[in-house]
Batch of 2 targets.
Target 1
Amino acid sequence: MLEVGAGEGRLTFALASEARSWLATEPKPESVEAARQGMPHELERTVAFAVAGGAEVPGSPGEFDLAFFSWSL
Amino acid sequence: MDPPEAAVGVLRHVHSLLAPGATVLHLTCLPVSDRIEADGHVLGELDQAAFIASLPVVEGAVDLLIAEGFLVEETRLEHDVLVHFSSGPEALAHFETTPHTRVPPELRVVLRDLDRPVVQRAGCLWRRLRVARG
C-alpha cells in the first residue's frame, strides 16, 4: 500500500491496520517527523514513512497493489 | 485547460510503481467553498476562490491517464467531510493558516466571539480507479 501526501499520518493511522505493509510518503520533513512521533505502537511493523514528493516516491516497478492520494495531487 | 505537468508527472511515476490491476484511490475537493456551521445552522462560507481555481486542472491529470488507457475509473462518490472545532476562535485560527483560504469579514465577526462547537463542511470527491492490464 502506497500513500502519497500522508501529512502527519491522520488517515494513515486510521487505515493502516487493514494493510500488510504501508508506505506513507510526504514532502514536508516536519510533518513526517510529527507522524513518526505519533505512530501507534501496534503499527510500527506495518507503516514506514518517507520524506518524498509525489514524483520521487521510492519503490520498484509493480511493487504496490494500491495507491492512495488524499488531497495530495 | 491542460492539466498541470507536475500532477501528471506524479501520476505517471506512481503508476509505474503499481502492479497491473492495482487500485488507485483519489480523494479531492469539489469546486465549492466550505460551509461553516454551528448548532446545525450555516454561519457562512469561506472564500476559497483561489483554491477552487486549481481543482479542475488537478482532476484533469487523472482524466488524462484515463484517456491514455493507463487507468480505468470504477467508481465516483461525492460526500461531505466534516472538520470539528471546539469554538469559533479555534476555527478562525485554523482558517487563517489554511493556504488559499480567506475568511470573509462578516464570518470573522461571528466566529471571533462564538463559544460553541463549529463545523467546517467540505464537499469531496472519491474516485476509485484500476491500473489497466496489459
Note: The first strand of chain A starts at residue 2 and ends at 4.
Target 2
Amino acid sequence: MDITETKHDQYSVFKLNGRLDSNTAMGFEQKLFDCIENGTQRLILDFEELDYISSAGLRVILKATKSLKGADGKLVLCEMQDYVKEVFEISGFDSFLPIEATLDDAVKSV
Amino acid sequence: MGSISFALKNNLTELDALCEHVTSFCKSSGVSKRQTFEINLALDELFTNIISHGFTDGNEHHVHIHCVDEDGVLKITIEDDGVPFNPTDAPHPNLKCAFNDREIGGLGIHLIRSYMDRIEYRRENRKNVLTLTKTI
C-alpha cells in the first residue's frame, strides 16, 4: 500500500492506495501517529484509491480517532468506494466517524 | 464447477498471495467485484486470526485452503494444524455502545458472519477445519 501525506496549514490529508490489511496496518498506524505527535490534530483520510480494508485497518482508525478526541482534534474520511463504506457500516463505525462523499466536503468539515 | 486448492505459510506476508488466488478464482467463476471483495475480506480475517492465535512453536506451518463453486454456491475450507481455536466462539461485538467503549475485538468474526451465509468449525485429526458457504 502507498500512503501519500499532503500537509496544509490547518490539516493533513493522507491518500491511501492499495490494501489496508493486517500486513500494512502497522505502517499506516506509524505514519498517522507520527503526524499526530508532530502536532497536527486535524486529519483527512482520502480513500479514493483504497481497494480494500479489513478489521486491522478499522483498529488503526479507531485508535487514532480516540487519540485525537482527547487532544480536541478530528479525523474525517472521504471518497470511499461503496463496498469499503459498507465495512464501516457493518462495523457500526459510521455512527461516530465523519464520512464525507468528497475531499472538498471533508476539507469543509475537518 | 471450478475449484482451487492452495497452501499458505504462517506469515502475514502471505495475505497478498491469498488475495491473488481468491481473486483469480472468483474471476474464473464469474463472481462479481463486490462479492469478490466480501470473500477476500472473510478469508483475510480468518487467516489473520489463525496466524495471530494458532502457532506457538516458532516453526513453519501451512494453512490449506480449498474453494469450490457448486452450482452457484461457493464452499471454502480452511485447515490448519495450530492450537485448537474456534473463531465462531468469539463474542458478538457491541456495535451500539458509546464510542469511548468501542473495542476492536470480535469485529473480524462479525464481518465474516455478515458476508458469509454460513460458517462452521470442527476439530478433526488434530486440525482446525473451518467451512464457509456463500451463494454467489
Note: Chain B has one domain: 3-135.
